[in-house]
Amino acid sequence: MKTNLKMKPAEKHAANILVILGIIALIAIAVFIFQGLNTNNFDFNFPRRLRKIAAILLVSTCIGYSSVVFQTITENRILTPNVMGLDSLYMFIQSLIVYMFGAKQLMLMNSTVHFIISVGLMMAASLVIYSLVFRTEGQNIYTLVLAGMIMGTFFRGISSFLQMMIDPNEFSILQGKMFATFSNVNEKLLTISCFTVLVCLLISRKDIAKMDVLVLGKDSAISLGISYNKTMLRTMIIISVMVSVSTVLVGPVTFLGILLVSISRELMKTYRHIYLIFCAILTGLIALPLGQLVSERIFNGKTTLSVILNFVGGIYFIYLLLKESKQ
Length: 327
Description:
By secondary structure, the chain is mainly α. Helices cover 78% and strands 0% of the residues. The protein contains 14 helices and no strands.
């Protein structure tokens, strides 16, 4: 009895696209690492650029995975995990530390302690929202999104109030936390972040196939044997961990998720999440090194990568809103 191992046309197309993106990503990484290197500056620049690439890989994985999965469970092609307000909570934590203890304390605080406090508080806030939403039968993902948006608006307002009361000299130090940067990635935090994200990926590896079923909607997923509420809760917690780790490591990147997931859906032309997630990650590995190169070489470091991404992503987000309104 012969077994048909041929790939479907859509999957074959997706696999070919992934190979092409993988090659382009390797070229982009190589250009970023080796451009301008010589015998005089190799020992100084090469390790620093490797840390940047490691951070870029981590952020691409976190944002790519979380954005694709989040859009699936919310059944919305515009929403991203940032709507949950975790970046606003992060800025509230930084603003509160500066307001209560001064910017000096923020600078001198042990990086590992700061990481644990920030991620821990962001995770605690997420768990409180999830427990309140899923405690009652009949609550759905839209209630969760609404609660996240309210939380984001609340913490954003308090952060703005605290920032107005902070000394202008200390605010300049806090301002550095408002924008994502890959220039000064802490090696200890990078190790902890990689371990955390790896654990999340191992836990969620079986849920990737379930996402292909959840595309059909809640009722269809339940009828096909998916434990909907448990899957939603586990998935949202993993998304929160990934977004929290990415935000604490390099800072908030608001519109990166919408760019990665939208490009992935346009290129893949398939519902299979294994292809969509890998495409989003590879797209990030292309966009972020090239964007960082533009920031460092063309703008001479005066403009951060997050400003470039938010400018492009903001325009694209408006385009998506107009497109959805017409449909």
